[in-house]
Amino acid sequence: MSLDQAALAANRFGFGARPGELRSIAGDPVGWVKAQLTPERAPPAVIAALPPAEDDVLAFGRFYVSQRLQGENGERMEQRLERQGVSREDIQRLSTEDAFRQHFRARYDNATKARLDTAFATERPAFERLVHFWSNHFTVSAMKPQAAAMPPSFEKEAIRPHVGGRFADMLVASTKHPGMGIYLDNWSSIGPNSRWAREPRSMPRLGFGPGGRPTGLNENLGREILELHTLGVNGGYAQADVQALAAIITGWTYDRPPARYYFGDEKGTRSGAQLFSFVNDAHEPGAKTLLGKSYPPNGVAQGEAALQDLARRPATARFIATKLARHYIADTPPPAAVDRIAQAFTRSDGDLRATMTALVDSPEAWASPFVKFKRPEEYLISVMRALDIKTLPPGVGANACGAMGQVIWRAQGPDGWADTSGPWLSGDLVWKRIEWAEALAQRVSRADVDPASIGEAVLGPLLSAETRQAVQRAESPMQGMVILLSSPEFQRR
């Protein structure tokens, strides 16, 4: 029985142990991780209950309409809505409510609560860590107003079903999802020689939100697929390849709900896959050459074939392997581990279970504990698991993460949250963690709660003698709890 390896497995591959969990892991720490790499049969109930992509689209549409109704062209918007069968009573109700509070804050609080509660209570923490990893890899950020409601359904529909599956399938699903299309503007991209570009009057109104009319080729999604999702910035592509991929996925958009859905109690029920739409009139016609290979003009299949090929390229295997090794092993990934993971990715045709198995089997992954600094969300989850807290009120966990520097689903850019320690080790952010630990300790500390015993239960032999002694010498259980939760062992994994 290896308690130190069990503690390493729980922290490095999961979100930290709960009291009593180390002994169940200790019999086979490696097997404990590998058993969780399979796809889930069904999402947790709280995740399954989150709104689908169509309802997320509606959330922004309602916000957009309410803002327009209050703007200079509000009267014109009212007339347009009335022509589409929306009653004046519904229009008035929407124009007077607090749009953000009504359509975004409650949704955000409920979704982040579901994400965090799942991580607190899960029996498969290694799987949940992978959900968070891949959701960050294929970032859709609510920092963009039009995408404010989209990250939860994107993670639920485009990421979760493919964890443990094929990377190519996750790549295609993420590219087709309206969350990605809205975030990186592919909904507005049309081919320069498409029918819509040649005959602008043939272009229909696209409904509410994001709104407007496409004006030309948009390279954002094509560029990020190459730079962030597959090959990496040094993956051997050129600007011509960015333009070619952008042209290949012109016409990849989504169905907008009818105007009446923005009013009353009607809910959008379609997933991102069901919303995906290919508009041939917006698609750049003709064969296209990407990375030296020509793709025939066969509609949406042209883009699907290009994405499948990108997923199989050696540069993609190395880029993914490097990111995985950086996330799980060290900020500077060990070259031998990267080689091993990349080879497994290639041999298995991008099978993510086989790829992660190679990582788990790498001796480097078990060599040195506590070399990675936890991001705020990881830190919060590990503390909640250590204290055996399985749920928090809506907004509480998300607010705590935000105070420590990581607002869930609101990364600053499409490259996601940093996976190295530097950005998280500023004096201010570290102090925010200590402040949060102190505030939490005040709420949970009691005379019958022994912080030293908690440390032993969740860290085992990895709890240092220095931390153990400092906790035992604390003047009160509350002070001991603060010392424990602020210790290097709790800050790192």
Question: Can you walk me through this structure?
Answer:
- It contains 27 helices and four strands.
- By secondary structure, the protein is mainly alpha-helical.
- It has a domain at 376-491.
- The strands form two sheets. It has a two-stranded antiparallel sheet with strand order 1-2. The chain has a two-stranded antiparallel ribbon with strand order 3-4.
- Strand 3 and strand 4 form a beta hairpin.
- Helix 14 (220-229) packs across helix 15, helix 18 packs across helix 19 (335-347) and helix 19 (335-347) packs antiparallel against helix 20.
Which percent range fits the helix content?
A: 40-55%
**Span of the ends, CA to CA:** 21 Å
C-alpha geometry:
globular
Radius of gyration: 24 Å
Bin the strand percentage. under 5%
- Tally the helices: what do you get? 27
Q: State the strand order across the main sheet.
A: 1-2
Low-pLDDT runs of 5+ residues are 94-98
Average pLDDT across residues? 92
Structural class: mainly alpha
How is the biggest beta sheet arranged?
2 strands, antiparallel
